[in-house]
């Protein structure tokens, strides 16, 4: 600590890192069940977490409130009130049996950075807003990015009628939470209010660890296409139907899955493809499977690359189905565009990383983030922090104190040196 010079923005950061990890643990204690972390949109645990985060924001010198969708919003004024803001954030909902870092790390780090400025009485030529998005994971209503879509003004009102597994509509859940579903539009912000949106997040992959780096610059949030395939052949007796007369839908699906893997493996542009779900019917040991459904998730760093790859994979699956005399139904169930991080923000993130003494390394985000919605109203930048083994969406998700600390130092440096629009 004492070795850091006065010009370093990191003079408070050992305490920042400790504070961040302490708060990660406090927030993780707010869960549906103590042994399996779950903080699901519009539940009472979600509300308790929001109240705790609001407290942290206020003690960091921010004005704070819950917006119409349940986002936790804090504002730290700049040199004079009413200036456009640099918006920092992440989400505070979790998946089921989650890790405690995915989402909260970015949110808590941003609050700690503001608290550090506040403690020093430092005001900047712009405001800082910190936002904790209410629903990024989409666990309860199977619709992701609800919080950031509301802020970006792209929330689709028709999802209010969606029901959760218990039959409760989103509309009723919002009311029970103390929010007015008729006023979701009030959460929307406009481009002129925001200078940029920057999110710090755990990597959720093993790349930084392999590079032996604490932090990285995100170049792009990869788009994704999800498809559902249904192969229909003919069920039959496992003992009586000769092999050459079979129309085995599961063997056909197996060939498709291997073809997808081979295709993605030989791609040099970072294409990834996953079959994460399969169901065979009738599903008995002694019956030839007559019908199989499976899903595909295809991601790449550019939309053009992904679309070409999907078209190629579809052609291969069609050919396999035809050769095996299986009927095929293929549907695109979900499509996310690729969101590039703005070059001027990438440059400033890189500069902050270099200033803190780390090697600058760029990587794509294979996982989706709130920036995918925020791009509609602001340029987006992201900082990744290394997580152990690349493990995420799992209780073993872990970030070392030193890496949490490095992330905070970089974010604080970035804030203090921030130049809107990349001005020199
Ligand atoms: Zn996340």
Helix and strand topology:
Elements: H1 13-28, H2 44-59, E1 63-66, E2 72-76, E3 85-91, H3 104-119, E4 127-133, H4 146-152, H5 170-177, E5 194-202, H6 207-211, E6 215-221, E7 223-232, E8 236-237, H7 249-265, E9 272-274, E10 278-281, E11 287-288, E12 291-300, H8 303-323, E13 327-336, E14 339-340, H9 343-355, E15 362-365, H10 371-374, E16 380-385, H11 401-416
The structure holds zinc ion.
What key attributes describe this structure?
424 residues; alpha+beta; 9-stranded mixed beta sheet; 5-stranded antiparallel beta sheet; 16 strands; globular; binds zinc ion
Percentage of residues in DSSP E strands: 15-25%
Q: Order of helices and strands, N to C?
A: HHEEEHEHHEHEEEHEEEEHEEHEHEH
Low-confidence segments, ≥5 residues, pLDDT <50? 1-13
Main beta sheet: strand number and arrangement? 9 strands, mixed
Q: In which range does the helix fraction lie?
A: 25-40%
Q: What's this model, at a glance?
A:
The protein has 424 residues and is α+β, with helices and mostly antiparallel strands.
Please provide a written account of the structure:
With 424 residues, this protein is an alpha+beta fold. It contains eleven helices and 16 strands. The strands form three sheets. Strands 1, 2, 3, 4, 5, 6, 14, 15 and 16 form a nine-stranded mixed sheet that branches. A hairpin with a 5-residue loop joins strand 1 and strand 2 (72-76). Helix 1 (13-28) crosses helix 3 (104-119) and helix 9 crosses helix 11. The longest helix is centred in the C-terminal third of the chain and has 21 residues, at 303-323. The radius of gyration is 24 Å and the shape is globular. The protein starts with 12 loop residues before the first helix and ends in an 8-residue tail after the last helix. The model is unreliable at 1-13 (pLDDT under 50). The site of zinc ion has 5 residues, from loops.
